[in-house]
Recover the amino acids of this structure.
């Protein structure tokens, strides 16, 4: 097993993604600087089990590039990103950010983690939508991995 995949299975990045999703959900409802999110959610009880650097990279990356990510997201869906459920929207923003900015994370891991978050926190069939959108994105953004 290669090192990036082994790190994923340790669970620290899974917890980091969960905390980042919570931070991004909050951010969508009440916009604020990404640094405030990192400070607020960095003090969460689960942070001790999370990859803190990865959490920060997700929050900073998504907040800093949200306009570009939404433009890209719009090309993979049949509706405007602003009309998406905030949970699925946050998951898709994180997934797209990872697909384009984190080549150290295999695309299958990104999609699997996103689907897991959608199953846990999203609408009943939201995970199917998340899977389809990120699979389309992965084909375009990571063609060498297919």
């Amino acid at each position: 097993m290669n090192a990036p995949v082994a790190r994923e299975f340790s669970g620290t990045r899974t917890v980091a993604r969960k905390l980042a999703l919570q931070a991004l959900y909050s951010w969508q409802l009440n916009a604020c600087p990404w640094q405030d999110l990192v400070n607020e959610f960095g003090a969460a009880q689960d942070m001790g089990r999370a990859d803190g650097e990865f959490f920060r990279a997700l929050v900073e990356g998504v907040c800093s590039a949200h306009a570009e990510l939404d433009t890209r997201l719009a090309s993979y869906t049949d509706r405007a990103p602003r009309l998406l459920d905030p949970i699925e929207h946050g998951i898709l923003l994180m997934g797209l950010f990872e697909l384009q900015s984190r080549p150290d994370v295999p695309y299958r891991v990104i999609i699997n983690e996103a689907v897991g978050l959608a199953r846990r926190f999203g609408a009943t069939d939201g995970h199917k939508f998340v899977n389809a959108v990120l699979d389309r994105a992965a084909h375009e953004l990571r063609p060498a991995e297919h």
